[in-house]
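Exercise 3.2. Students should predict the tertiary structure of the chain below and write it as structure tokens, then compare their answer with the key that follows.

Predict this chain's 3D structure.
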Amino acid sequence: MQQFRRTLAALAVAATLPTIVLSAVQVTLALNDERRTTEREMIDRARRISLMVDAEVQSDVTGLRALATAQSLAEGRFSDFSERARGALSLEPSWRVIHVVDARSGRTLSSIAADAQSAVGALESPPPSVDPRRAHPVLSEDGRLLFVSVAPQPHAGPPRYIVTLGKDTLVFQRTLQANASPGELAALVMADGRFLGRTINYEQRRGRFATSHLREAIARGESGVYRGVTLEGMSNYTAFWKSPATRISAHIATPSWSIDQARIGSALIAIGASFAALAIAVALSWLVLRELAERRAVDTALAQAQKMEAVGRMSGGLAHDFANIVAAFGAGLRLLSREPGLSERGKTVLGELEGAVDRALALSRRLLDFARVQDVALETVDVPSALKTIEDLVRHTVGPGIEVRYDIAAEAGAALTNAHEFEMAVLNLAANARDAMPGGGLLTISAAPSQTKRPMIDISVTDTGEGMSDEVRQRALEPFFTTKPAGQGTGLGLAQVVSLARRSKGDVEIESAPGAGTRVVLRLPRAS
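Answer key:
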């Protein structure tokens, strides 16, 4: 009696563990989804900021191009052009200096400053070299001015002059600060990796080179999320978006702990719950087997058969629950393995855990094979609804290289069978069809009333694969018969289908020929 109580207690705990583990995995998935949503939102905000900068620069280029079309410039009357340029500088507060450069020699012909402060140093030194054809701006050495250039095109021949505008970078700093969220570090970075704007330490950082993490990110791609450390030492995840026009990129950084902490915690919960489930499942199996061993010594042959049936039922249920737990754990591990920035140590640990999952699934499959003698409860199953429910699973099972079509007759109706076993049978047939079409093909699943005397329903799974020879077709429904190499199949897929058909008082038929594909018909009695 004491042993029986222990077994019941273990069963009660084991029954709650799948819910615990699945809840932990769901929390992990939800947190990962939230993280991806946060990253997408950060990239979108970086894109908006970069587009605002683009719009500002494009407005400057448009105004500068209009100024460069002045007749006085075309005729070389620089004093008259200077007056017009001063008028433009007075209308645009962020415009600080305008240079006119000889397109051939690169010599500065004229420099016009907005005020005396802007004139200091700007009038004596030549402007930076800017390619007016690409319209990519250039930052001054001290980061105070952003230069853009245009080359007015004469009616004939190459351009004579290049007009360059020096723009105060504070206007971009204000745009950045107005669109950055509290608690984040945002920055604008030129194509050469120097800061144009920064929400922290702007005066000290502008014109200086950003971290190597940032420069490597903008060199690799146009947008995304990367992990790094700021100049202030903050470990972070940063989303960025680089303008294809100006090559100025906007970066939004958030502390890495705000993303990693919850993810690591949820992963530890899922791992702990899964190992607890495994330990209790092993203990439960040991208790059951020990009790059966004690009874075997005193029971008759009839009692021994009854006990083996009990072991089969219990092992089958345990294997199903255990397989669900381990499969959920495996899905969580696969999601974690795709996370960016995973260390080599982390990859090694995940690989070891995935190997443990594979071994656990192999154990559950062996237990299920052992339990296949058990009966199942028959129920009314709506065939069209059941096939619709597992449509996504079928497509996932066969993979993207195989087209899946459904041909479900409206009068197909309901069958008297077991819902879970029916779904597993269809999935097994789909898996066999996939293996018969290694190069891809068409999989058709149909359901219709059977053309027989008894009220039956035919569920057909048809592939366009390699087909079977007569010898293989005659043995295909035998348990453990398979044409696959050792270690790649058990031959139990079709045996499960046959087992369901017999328990449901139905039948299975195979139509196939080499090179002509295969059609497997699962015939089940119609529910009254």
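Discussion points: The mean pLDDT is 79. The CA atoms of residues 123 and 163 lie 14 Å apart.
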